[in-house]
Structure formats: C-alpha cells, structure tokens
Automatic annotation (TrEMBL):
<feature type="transmembrane region" description="Helical">
    <location>
        <begin position="204"/>
        <end position="222"/>
    </location>
</feature>
<keyword id="KW-0472">Membrane</keyword>
<feature type="transmembrane region" description="Helical">
    <location>
        <begin position="100"/>
        <end position="120"/>
    </location>
</feature>
<feature type="transmembrane region" description="Helical">
    <location>
        <begin position="273"/>
        <end position="297"/>
    </location>
</feature>
<feature type="transmembrane region" description="Helical">
    <location>
        <begin position="24"/>
        <end position="48"/>
    </location>
</feature>
<feature type="transmembrane region" description="Helical">
    <location>
        <begin position="60"/>
        <end position="79"/>
    </location>
</feature>
<feature type="transmembrane region" description="Helical">
    <location>
        <begin position="140"/>
        <end position="160"/>
    </location>
</feature>
<feature type="transmembrane region" description="Helical">
    <location>
        <begin position="172"/>
        <end position="192"/>
    </location>
</feature>
<dbReference type="GO" id="GO:0005886">
    <property type="term" value="C:plasma membrane"/>
</dbReference>
<keyword id="KW-0812">Transmembrane</keyword>
<feature type="transmembrane region" description="Helical">
    <location>
        <begin position="234"/>
        <end position="253"/>
    </location>
</feature>
<keyword id="KW-1133">Transmembrane helix</keyword>
<dbReference type="Pfam" id="PF03706">
    <property type="entry name" value="LPG_synthase_TM"/>
</dbReference>
<protein>
    <recommendedName>
        <fullName>Lysylphosphatidylglycerol synthase TM region</fullName>
    </recommendedName>
</protein>
<keyword id="KW-1003">Cell membrane</keyword>
<dbReference type="InterPro" id="IPR022791">
    <property type="entry name" value="L-PG_synthase/AglD"/>
</dbReference>
Length: 313
C-alpha cells in the first residue's frame, strides 16, 4: 500500500513540474535504464568480448543490405505521413518531408531533453503554412498511432504463426484478432477522425508493407551473423516486441538487448549470439538517425510539390 501512495505522490510531483523539467526527468530515466541494462548485460550477465566475437566472422554485406532495408522502411514512413498531410491540404514536397523526418529522428536520438523531433516538425510546418497546430499535430500523431497499431497486430498474428501455445483457442483467436484488427482499426479511427477516413486504410497497408521490409532486415542481420533459427517467427516476434519496448529506454539501447537475451534463454537460443544481433539493430538505428545532423546545420528548405500525384492501393 505504501508503494502505491509513493507512486501516486511521485506522479503528482512530476505533473507539477514545468514541461521542460519534466522532459529532462523522463530523458534521465530513459538514459538510466539504458546504461544500467547495458552494464548488466555486457559486463555482468554476459561478457562484452563474447558478444563482439560474433562480429569477427560476420558477413557485412548482409548487414549492409539490412541497413539499406531500414533506410527504405523510413522512406516509406515518409510516404505514409504524406497521406495525412494531404488531408489537411499541407502540400509538402517529398524531399522536404524526408529532410524533416530525418532531422526529427536526429532530435529524438541525440538531443535528450531538448525539443522532440515531432514537436519540431509541427513547429516548422505551422510556421510555414496557414494550418493550425491542432491539425498538424493530429496528422503526425495519427500517423504514429496507425504504425503502432500495425506493429501490435503483427505481434498478435505471430503468436499464431509461432505455435507458442498448446491451446488452440488462443492460437486461432490471435489469428482472428489480427485479421479483424487490420480492418477494424482503420474503420474505427475513420469514424472518429473523419477528415482522415480514407487515409487510414491506405496507411495501414503502408504499415504492413513497412513491417514486411523489417522482416527482411531481420533476416539479413541473422544471416550476416550466421544465425539460422529453426523458428524464424519467434525471432521476428522478439524483434517486434523489443521495438515496442524501446520507447522506455534511450533509442532502444539496453532494452532491445535485454529482450533478445531473455527471450534466447526462454527459447533455448544462444544468448550471446542473440544479444549481438540486437546490438547490430541498435547500431543501425542510431547510425541512420545521425543523417539528420546534415539538416541541423544545413537547414530544411520547405518546398511544395511541383506536381500533385496520387498514390493509392
């Protein structure tokens, strides 16, 4: 009971703080989680040299292909966001949208406690277009929601594919929930946010394709480290779960490695090999985010589309 009151008291104190102070506290917590987990995994539970030893015989061509696929997935995310901008008559060119996107990734990764990447994007677009902060913020937020929904539904679908349960009703129930969810989520969101009604279906398809590209990324990372799992779907499930949980750490560092390590123990994988794969994902993510520093110094020129094109499924 004392713990409950302590938790409520802490939440109350944080709510009373200024937004900037609150952001510093949240960032500090994320950094602490990452540092503690990295220290525990690399120096206590496992050994850093055992983990890095797997990179000696790695096929770096496969790792490079995985990196290209990650960049492709981010490029596709820019196209998905463009649907929501079109709905509010924000005629932003793909080039400007992509530059803002990568600059946002840089802010989110390398400027802890500072302005968030999405917040900066909303600020710049509001400054250059006569469109309300509410409309732009809602478009950016809904793009994130549909992406998160697709990832969660993919995780549910993988419960069916991975044969993780002996109960048929859970296995086939997960199949039913995922199939219904891929249709129901866009429909429900469309009923609430009618201006984006048609966009939700297109962006859900984009999100599914994006997840399939990340499946390819996972495949090439595993191949690059000579990991040949009997059940690839379990590795994919671990990968997606670690992606969801990465929001509670700094850029996914620590939490991604922890999820892979404990899942490897649970499913009888090689723990150091699985952790080395997770660390590769973290390095790829943070490396691509660093592209945004170009636009931090160069700036982002806001340009409209020269010719409006329709892309639909």
């Amino acid at each position: 009971m004392c713990e409950v009151f302590l938790h409520l008291s802490l939440n109350y104190q944080i709510k009373k703080l200024k937004p900037k102070t609150k952001k510093y506290i949240i960032t500090g917590i994320k950094l602490t989680i990452s540092l503690v987990l990295i220290y525990y995994i690399f120096f206590v539970k496992l050994h850093i040299f055992d983990i890095f030893s797997h990179y000696k015989n790695a096929n770096w061509l496969y790792i490079a292909i995985a990196t290209v696929l990650y960049i492709l997935s981010q490029a596709l995310s820019v196209f998905r966001l463009d649907y929501y901008f079109r709905d509010i008559n924000l005629d932003l060119s793909y080039k400007s949208n992509a530059r803002l996107y990568f600059l946002g990734m840089f802010y989110n990764t390398f400027v802890p406690g500072g302005i968030g990447g999405d917040a900066y994007k909303v600020y710049v677009l509001n400054k250059n277009y006569k469109i309300s902060l509410k409309e732009i913020s809602q478009a950016v937020f809904l793009d994130k929601i549909i992406g998160l929904s697709a990832m969660l539904l993919m995780i549910v679908f993988l419960i069916y594919l991975s044969n993780l349960t002996d109960y048929p009703w859970i296995q086939y129930g997960s199949l039913a929930v995922s199939i219904v969810g891929f249709v129901a989520v866009p429909f429900i969101l469309g009923m609430i946010f009618r201006v984006h009604k048609r966009t939700f279906y297109n962006s859900m398809i984009y999100s599914i394709v994006l997840q399939l590209i990340q499946v390819g990324m996972l495949y090439f990372v595993l191949e690059g480290l000579n990991i040949h799992p009997e059940n690839f779907n379990i590795y994919l499930l671990i990968f997606l779960v670690s992606g969801i949980l990465s929001i509670i750490s700094f850029s996914g560092f620590g939490i991604r490695e922890a999820v892979f390590m404990y899942a490897a123990h649970r499913f009888n994988f090689d723990e150091t090999l699985a952790t080395s794969a997770a660390f590769i994902f973290s390095i790829i993510t943070i490396s691509i985010s660093f592209i945004g520093i170009i636009y931090l110094f160069k700036g982002v020129k806001i340009e409209e589309k020269k010719k409006r094109t329709k892309i639909s499924f």
